[in-house]
Amino acid sequence: MFRFVHSSDLHLGKRFGNLPEDLRGRLREARHTAISRLASAARTHGATHVLLAGDTFDTETPSPAILRQALTEMGLHAPLTFVLLPGNHDSLLADQLWDAAHTAAPQNVIIAGTAEPMSLASHVTLLPAPCTARRPGRDLTQWMMDAPTPDGTLRLGLAHGAIQQFSEDAAASDVIAPDRASRAGLDYLALGDWHGQIAVNPRTYYSGTPEPDRFKHERPGSALLVEIAAPGAPPEVTTVETASFTWRDLPLELLAGETGADTLEPLLPPVPARRQTLLRITATGRTRLADRSALMAAIAALEPDFAHLETDLTGLATDCDATDLDHIDHAGALRTAAEALLAESEDPALSAEARDIARAALVRLFSYCEAIAP
User: Fold this and answer.
1) Please, are residues 209 and 8 in contact by the beta-carbon 8 Å criterion?
2) Where are the beta strands (DSSP E) in the chain?
3) CA–CA distance, 210 with 193 (Å, rounded to integer)
4) Cis peptide leading into residue 79 (ω within 30°)
5) Can you tell me the distance from the alpha carbon of 2 to that of 81, in angstroms, rounded to the nearest whole number?
6) How much is the pLDDT for 369?
7) Looking at the DSSP assignment, which residues form a beta bridge with residue 248?
8) Which of 87-91, 98-102, 332-336 has the lowest mean pLDDT?
9) What value does the mean pLDDT take over residues 176-198?
10) 42, 121, 127, 156 — which has fewest CB within 10 A?
11) How many helices (H) and strands (E) does the chain have?
12) Cβ-defined contacts of 100-105 (< 8 Å, 24+)
């Protein structure tokens, strides 16, 4: 029996430049502490190795502190062995990075930087396919077809990249053959690149990232525990949760007459989990002007509970009539402004962006008038 943890795409040092500054540091720290969470999962399940299938670092030039602290953290978990594969974000073109990594790596960290068989144990051979560049332009796992390994040993493949244009970056030219495991006689092919967890076939898996970094994937961050009893035996693959933050895309579909604030509340995570949750609310359907205003107020009231909360209301149509405008004013400058904004929000001659701006301004005006109403 050989038991290991398969993970990838830690992206240590990721900047998260599109998020508030006070949150960026928390997210970067969570990526670093994913190392200890992977080690803990390995120890809990009796695994001896953690295979990192590329993009351990977010760039080819991580700071010396990011590199040194990552390797030091891995060293603290000996005798557990970490195997680092260069990916497309931290490819072999980063000579300075990998030279420094070789120099600073503790004894329990292996840099899988050459496409040649590596012995992980007396009965286990690893066949790594390190990324030679950000876009190698060829299937780097091809060499595994003829790679010799001792009789009676497990053949494990380790690679990073796309399968059939199935890529995190959506622009892959280095397409890995989806049947590489069977054609190369691999007992298991551990892949990185796609940040969500997926089984390509019974012997080929993307592990996904242990710590999410976007709203793209529905599953929380996790890794894979892999157990293989003997050469040729089917691998037993189990998901182990590893994330400290949750990135959740919450669809909110409204019908005319529904109060969005009431519809939203039952869909939210429990209060204790919100500090570690990044939430994006995507509202669609139709709502009255007053209900839209109430929804925006409810979301604004919830925002401090969450690590990050953002909304997308572009798909939410707003119904408005004279009664709604009466809540703003019956006549005068405010009523004239409200009527002009309503007309612009419904004018097909304007761009979608211009209509959205007018609609948002109308809702804001409505909210102000509601707030100051006697």
Assistant:
1) yes
2) 2-7, 49-52, 81-84, 109-111, 118-121, 124-129, 154-160, 188-192, 198-201, 204-206, 222-228, 236-241, 246-254, 277-288, 308-319
3) 12
4) yes
5) 13
6) 75
7) 279
8) 332-336
9) 95
10) 121
11) 10, 15
12) 100/64, 100/67, 101/67, 101/71, 104/67, 104/68, 104/71, 105/71
Query: Would you tell me how many other CB atoms lie within 10 Å of the CB of residue 214?
Result: 13
- pLDDT tens digits, residue range 120-160? 999 999 999 999 998 888 899 999 999 999 999 999 999 99
Cα separations in angstroms, 127 against 3, 62, 145, 178:
17, 26, 10, 16
Q: How distant is the alpha carbon of residue 217 from its chain centre? A: 6
Residues 202 and 187 sit within 8 Å (Cβ to Cβ):
no
C-alpha count within 13 angstroms, C-beta hemisphere, residue 366 = 29
- DSSP 8-state class, residue 227: E
Q: Which of 250, 243, 266 is nearest to 308 (CA)?
A: 250
DSSP-derived letter for residue 369 is: H
For each of the domains in the chain, give its residue range(s) and CATH number, in order of start: 2-241 (3.60.21.10), 246-372 (no CATH)
